[in-house]
What we know:
B: mainly alpha; two-stranded antiparallel sheet; globular; C: Rossmann fold; 6-stranded mixed beta sheet
Amino acid sequence: MDVLVQGAITSATIALVALGFSLVYGVGGIVNLAHGSFFMIGAYAAYAASEADMPLLVAAVIGVAAAMLAGVLLDRLVIAPIRHQEVAVLIATLAVAILVQSGVQFFFGGLERQLPGFVEGSVSIFGVDLRQTELLAGLMALVTIVVVLLVLTRSPAGRMVRAVAEDEEAAVLVGVRPERVTLYVLAIGAGLAGLAGVLVAPYGVLTPTMWLLPLTQAFAIVILGGLGSIQGTVLASVVIGFLDRFVAFNVKDGGIKIGLVTVAVILATLVLRPQGLLGKVAR
Amino acid sequence: MTDTAAHAKPSAGSRAKRFLKPNVVLLALIPLFLLYLPRFVENTTLLQAISVATIFVMFAASWDILSGYTGQVSFGHAAFIGTGAYTVALFSKYEPGVSNELALLAGVLVAALLGVAIGVPCLRLKGPYLALATLSVAGALVQITFIYKEQLGGEDGIAGVKNVQDGAVTGPLGEGLSKLVLGPLTFGGKSPFDQYIYVSYFVALLAMVLVVGGLMLLGYGKRGLVLRSIQQDEAAAEAAGVPLTRYKLAAFVLSAACAGFAGGLYAQIRGTVALDLLSVDLSLLIIIIAAFGGAGSIIGPAIGAYAVILLQNYYLDRASDVFVEHPELKIGSFALLLIVVLIVAPRGLVPPLLQRLSGRGSPSRAAGAALTESA
Amino acid sequence: MSERVLDVQDLKVSFGKAQVLDGVTFHVDKGETVAVVGPNGAGKTTLLRALSRLNAWSGSVEFDGRPLPKKAYDVVMAGLVHTPERRRLFPGLSIRDNLELGARRLRKEPNTRAEDLERVYTLFPKLKERAGQTAGTLSGGEQQQCAIGRSLMGRPRLLLLDEPSMGLAPKLIQQIFSIIREINTQGTTVLLVEQNAQQALSVADRAYILETGSIVKEGTGRELLGDPAIKEAYLGVA
């Protein structure tokens, strides 16, 4: 039961990270190795704001805004100039991830940090004792995901995003600017990852290397879900989320084995089913 | 680009030779210079930094034979380095009776095995997949050190690795070279600590000459051409008769083995292993070195390693106390510099890597020529 | 002389050392249907892609009396709307979404959309029936209809059509060309490139024959249809 409830929460927060990663890849063909850094920036910015005695809600907004700003800067300053050079983008975004890591290390040091809970107290759901802040994180993440999916599938903006993902040139021919769409998607994707960082900050642990695991998990999710498949991303988030908690609860020293299991999933998927669960054959 | 098939063969061959063969005499001057350098440089801290840079030359060169040549850009080279280093350290810890050289060999083997284990699933992967797969495998290895904390030490690493001076081969070899260059009396007059610095300096240099020399022989020969052709255009290379799978996997394993060797030797020189040998920082540092030196040339990354590592381990510390207090700013600065270079001059400062990645020229024909010539 | 919509002078396109278009000069007047006819590899698609700024080129192109905008997006916004080769629909989006995306050019005048959608549905009743389905499920002929419909949603000042007959059965080809005639009658200026010379020349007011990057003949559609050399080369009759 623990696994079910906590797995659901973890799935939702991971999906927030993975959705942005997947969308940016789908739209711009950009694999952003700095995507996990948005998660970290969101968490640390909220932490810094709360240390400066700002109310937690304000701190949370600052966290998300900082991540979005980072996304905009990343696109404008780093990715846009080299957008069509795949390997250069990979190298540059990894360099950005390390730059952010060293910046966080410089300003906050290497010690583990934690944000106070957004809400106090604990609740019991299906017999599982849960801190309310965890429950809040899961619910917020879930609502956000539903909103994002609705925007993607129902709104004119979402239509444009999907159009660029399907055929960039054809999208240009109907008057869509892929660079703009990429910028917006990157900013929103960064904001989603930042939100996940903020939500997890009260019960996760903040360290300068905390960006790597969400990046790895987002990658696993995108591979497992199949490239450019939004449903696949959501479904795979659930798989990885439950796996994460299952390992954490049922395996000895599970907490530190999550990354290992994730990598195993990545490699197994690559070997057994490179197109992912729902995906089309890789482009 | 408009070469017709008829005259592509000889022209590609000669062009390749003209372009790629570095001047052997000039090249030999570098190790000779390094060999006699300790005679004139008294500063052992600097020599120590040069030893580390020499090790990094092997890291970079081994990265290059995989990434710069075949275009399978590895973002987790630290995985191989760390595997070699930790294997050596484990032997020191649990089987101290095993000789240094044997432990090093074991490190090479384990790293090579990891090369197979990563290489096989990655064979079909391109750019971003490969990048993320290699990156995440290295990340997983870091976690393994926490899982087997008792054995691998977690964040503390493993101390007390048997050092090069204890090696049955490396010890006498390093001492011999030290006496040769410095004179037996001078060497004998040094403190044990300084003697150790000299010994490891020469052992690293010797290993580097062997590894880099070997990789260059390979890289500038016909096989190197074939490897390059894979990067340019896999389909064309295959059409030209290149056994893709074999070459790609071989590059993976060779790269891993060399990195494991260098990593193991580094462990013996440092006397410790720790998480920095598995970190993303290290993987990126190698990419930075290769990018600045010019990937796909072996010698470029080698020279880049001296520049970057001496900056990192010696000059920056002396330039400002900030770097001493906050060592993380060093890799941060390099990362920033790399980003700026990639944006401002994506083809300029890093021409070989990026130009080849943008797919110019037609080395697949050259590869075809190389194959027919060798047949 | 009637108003000139498109004026192309000495247009050259090369890929590497291969000269794909070698100084092409032609024009399109308002209200006309102009066809560029030629065999495979003559450079027809390259010509349209150049006009849409999808290929680099040299020469001079005036659109609506002004130099052609420099960016693909601005070309579309100026009203030069391109229906690309092989339709290039968004296969995972619904037909209605595909059509609505075509109206992006007019997004600042929202009142036109319903009217334009109705017009497209009248031209292509099949699309209305299937509006909710994804475009990938359409047959070839329906996809072509959807692609043309998508372009019409932008109320093009000049509609570029790249090989609308490609891959269609003869009966559907007939249909598509009669639609093109109808679109033109309703007031849209059309520039059409086609391999199917018979059909293209019969709908075109004027036409150009493009061979290996150069225009080798021009005339009214009727003249060229009657030209013996053309008959032999393109229409399969001696």
